[in-house]
Amino acid sequence: MSATVEETTELAPRLPADNLRRAVRIGICGLGTVGSGTVNVMARNGEEIAARCGRPVEIVQVGARRDNAACDTSKLNVTREIFDVADNPDVDILVELIGGTTVARELVLAAINNGKHIVTANKALIAEHGNELFAAAAEKGVTIAYEAAVAGGIPIIKSLREGLVGNRIQWLAGIINGTGNYILTEMRDKGRSFAEALAQAQELGYAEADPTFDVEGIDAAHKLVIMASLAFAMPLAFDKVYTEGISGVSSEDIRYADELGYRIKHLGIARRTEHGVELRVHPTLIPQRRLIANVNGVMNAVLVNGDAVGPTLYYGAGAGAEATASAVIADIVDVARTLEAKPDQRVPAAGVAEGSQAGPQVLPMDEVVTSYYLRISAHDKPGVMSQVAKICSDQGISIEALIQHEPAEGEALVPVVILTSRAKEARLREAVAQIEALDTVEGEVVRIRVETLG
Ligand SMILES: NC(=O)c1ccc[n+]([C@@H]2O[C@H](COP(=O)([O-])OP(=O)(O)OC[C@H]3O[C@@H](n4cnc5c(N)ncnc54)[C@H](OP(=O)(O)O)[C@@H]3O)[C@@H](O)[C@H]2O)c1
């Protein structure tokens, strides 16, 4: 039975009755990589998008400091002042694609205050200011959609919010930074050092001139915390994510991992435990037989384990102009479809009632339990292994696998590589401190966590 205009109008505080099928009017702020991709895909696929949306989607204004040769804005209304878009009464949805957290936060708050819905690709903004923004949006009865903020074109936010909604999510693990994954893939496939692979990534435009956000795991931590908030119905807790980058991963460790049947990937992991939620980003050994271990180059993938569905894997381009535009447009259509629904009848944007501090606690890293890969530089003398084994055993840690090669010609030190049983982080740290203090051991012990993801 179709609703009458009067009935529908009751559910449509934001669209006048005579306008129910009028175009949805969007304002795009930022005309860089994603902004220009969005303009191009909208122009190319406008008819399909309108058909799926049930009404045309019209770009009524673009806020950009300068033109971008990657897209044609000659027929669009362009302003050099992005706050004009937030104030434009003709804009229903403001699409924030400027990046950063300062001006972007002000822009989004101004638009929300003016009753506009928000679509953003900005993971830093959501991860760091999402709790505040969701609270402001809830107050104004508008939606914030952020599919493009995590894993670019992969619809992982929609999967968590909708497709997997019947599940209790046990854990999720993702390769969610393409630059890092490219570097680790180059190191493994071509035997390059970290520095060489990074330089190559910069040359190809995969890494920024300042690569800190990517290689030190901050970008992945932003994305992880967003996924965790949806998976575990908790507020965004960016400051509680344990974050370790890939700059310490060596080609040697990649080779030993191979020898043991593992790949080293930079993972964002969120896991529900009895005592709280683990939130951590770090290099991880994962068995080569897992599909996710074979996600290479700049591609992204997220493995989500729900109690009903079991493991599900989402794979695709995590960045790029049009791949990200795909997610931005999905959000625009999503918001447009819900314009007739009352705010409380929409799929919630955040994992918890907006602004609430409810939800599980984040587990301190010392309490996290994992297996470990350890590489010890030991003198080639008898008794080293029994000392190491005793230290581990005193901490309740057993040695599950070991590689020890002959020392290289003229070398006094031998690398001893160990895979441990699962142990609490604090115990492992104590064992490593004692191993490093041995006379027979030189320098720091390399440690990389191991996950079976089974
Ligand atoms: N690139 C990707 O593949 C990708 C993937 C997923 C998510 N994202 C996210 O998408 C957002 C945009 O990324 P991007 O790669 O498109 O960045 P970008 O290429 O640097 O584009 C950003 C654009 O915003 C403009 N801008 C910044 N501040 C402005 C201001 N105050 N007023 C007007 N214009 C302003 C910049 O103008 P100027 O050129 O004048 O500085 C630039 O054109 C970021 O939040 C990013 O994290 C990107």
What labels describe this entry?
single chain; 454 residues; alpha/beta; Rossmann fold; Dihydrodipicolinate Reductase, domain 2; Alpha-Beta Plaits; 3 domains; 11-stranded mixed sheet; 6-stranded parallel sheet; 14 helices; 24% strand; elongated; disordered N terminus; binds NADP nicotinamide-adenine-dinucleotide phosphate; threonine biosynthesis; ACT-like_dom_sf
Which helices and strands occur, and which strands form pairs?
Layout: H1 5-10, E1 24-29, H2 33-53, E2 57-63, E3 78-79, H3 83-87, E4 93-96, H4 103-113, E5 117-120, H5 123-140, E6 144-145, H6 156-163, E7 169-175, H7 178-190, H8 194-203, H9 212-215, H10 218-231, E8 242-243, H11 251-259, E9 262-273, E10 276-287, E11 299-306, E12 310-317, H12 321-337, E13 369-379, H13 384-394, E14 399-404, E15 413-420, E16 423-424, H14 425-436, E17 441-450
Parallel strand pairs: 1-2, 1-4, 2-3, 4-5, 5-6, 8-10, 10-17
Antiparallel strand pairs: 7-9, 7-11, 9-10, 11-12, 13-15, 13-16, 13-17, 14-15
Helix pairs in contact: 2-12, 4-5, 5-10, 7-8, 13-14
The chain binds NADP nicotinamide-adenine-dinucleotide phosphate.
Catalytic activity: L-homoserine + NAD(+) = L-aspartate 4-semialdehyde + NADH + H(+)
Binding site for L-homoserine: 208
Protein name: Homoserine dehydrogenase
